[in-house]
Design brief:
mainly alpha; Helix Hairpins; two-stranded parallel ribbon; 2 strands; about 80% helix
Amino acid sequence: MAAEKKTEQTASVETRLKSLYDLQTILSEIDRIKTIRGELPLEVKDLEDQIAGLNTRIDNFSREIAELERAVKEENAKIANCQGLIDRYNQQMDNVRNNREYDLLHKEVEFQSLEIELANKHINDHSRAIENRHADIDATRQRLDDLEHILTEKRDELDEIVGETRQEEEGLRVKAKQIEENIDERTLTAFKRIRKNARNGLGIVYVQRDACGGCFNRIPPQKQMEIRMHKKVIVCEYCGRIMIDPVLAGVEA
């Protein structure tokens, strides 16, 4: 009975290790497909973000122009009001009864004239700001057109690559899912964590020339013997990758 249980346990470890290695092989192939795509997905996303930012900038410039134009209208209305007051004060000065009334009216005319002068200054400032904002919009739209042209090219290139590899990748993902169903959750979670932290995406490697196939640090003979016995899952003490012997992995030593 004990021998039977030991055989089942050994077979279970062997099965898990073999399934993990098969899964790693498929995932490495998916990684290869992603490498073919290169940085294109990130480049497309970056271009989309830049274009969204430029459109926001144009909207902000447009709102600023609208506010400046309203300010110009207000200044023009102010000028018209001041001019109307000046005309009225001038008429009143023709009918003053003494110098005191004349001086008061004259000061009012001077004050309204200064208000007109100040309003004209504001109008000139606002007009220059409007011109600058229109120039900013033109420059931003030029940049936007350039980026949209580049984005179209990048999207076409990415779509072409994705179209060529989609069917292959989908098939690989189906196979990977089927293999994952044969691996217990604890082992699978540990494998995915190791693979995520590994620079080359390898979560399980076989022994190569008495060394770890991931970090290439030497493995002691006793540890190699334990790996070949398949009694338990063994990880590299240097890089943390799961170890499997070449025979079980189905590769030549």
